[in-house]
Amino acid sequence: MLFSRGDLPSIRILMECLQEFRDVSGLAVNNAKSNIFTAGIQNDTLDEALAMTDFARGHMPVRYLGIPLAAQRLSVTDYSPLVDQIAGCIRKWTAKSLSFAGRLELIRSVLQGVECFWLQVFPLPMAVIEKIHRLCRAFLWNSKRAPVAWEDICHPKEEGGLGVRHIQSWNVALLARVLWNIHCKADTLWVKWVNEVYLRGASLWDWQPKKDDSPLLSTTCRDPGQNYH
Asked: Where in the chain are the domains?
């Protein structure tokens, strides 16, 4: 993923860099699999940029490394890839003869590993969390009536549970870590960008997002526990 200013000289420099990279490495950009995303540029400039790059124009939301990128807050439908991935894993496992302990371990190790990638980026809507809970509950109990509430399953073992992470609590904890990194000005490119472009010297706790600011950042910077609906 490459970024540049939305003007033709900057785009031309970017394409020259790609050309030089191809000459040196022998690796070329696949134009058929590449897109250009723009914001706030005139139509004539956009047309020239498309002609210069020979890339198709992309539209949000788009998946990048399995995560949807969007200019607006994600809807429940945008989380379908996560739910579908979990459902797909469960379908494959259901065809096998697995013990209760085996199903439990798959939920804890595999499914919750899949969820983690999303949970550290987005506040999941309650509708999505409930869908995932239903899938995991049905898989754990082999589609039979659950004798124990899922909330109890998610308690630590020393408290009588089975040690499955509660998605909502886990999501809040991971997003709180993001806020802490911003507050501490962690040495990462994204944190530096947030502080320079959005906070501009203001404290994270005093920052008031504007209407056009990133909806994801605005939502995350609220009390993470209030992000569920």
From this structure: 8-59, 73-229
